[in-house]
């Protein structure tokens, strides 16, 4: 099994946290509960972080400087 670096672990935790927040937010909307107004902001911040890292990986792979 491959050992993940600290940065890869941070990405995995950010993704898991983002999914959990999304489930809480949309679950609250589905149950007609008033979710906290900060949840969409946190979801957007984590999503932006993941999107940035995804695009960075694509750029690094194209330039040949990908992490291994």
Write up this protein.
The protein is mostly helical and 68 residues long. It has helices at 6-30, 38-63. The chain is built from 2 helices and no strands. Helix 1 runs antiparallel to helix 2. The protein is elongated and about 50 Å long.
Taking the alpha carbons of the first and last residues, their distance comes to: 15 Å
What's the shape?
elongated
Query: Can you write the helix and strand succession as a string?
Result: HH
Summed over residues and divided by their number, the pLDDT gives a mean of 85
- The overall strand count is 0
Rg, alpha carbons? 16 Å
Based on helices, strands and strand pairing, what is the structural class? mainly alpha
Q: What percentage of the residues does DSSP assign to strands (E)?
A: under 5%
Q: Helical segment tally?
A: 2
* Percent helix range: over 70%
Sheet of most strands? none
Unreliable spans are none
Keywords: Membrane, Transmembrane, Transmembrane helix
What key phrases describe this protein's structure?
membrane; transmembrane; mainly alpha; transmembrane helix; 68 residues; single chain
């Amino acid at each position: 099994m491959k050992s993940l670096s600290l940065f890869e672990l941070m990405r995995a935790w950010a993704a898991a946290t983002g999914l959990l927040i999304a489930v809480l937010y949309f679950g609250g909307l589905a149950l007609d509960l008033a979710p906290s107004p900060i949840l969409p902001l946190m979801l957007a911040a984590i999503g932006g972080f993941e999107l940035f890292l995804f695009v960075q990986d694509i750029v690094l792979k194209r330039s040949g400087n990908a992490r291994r």
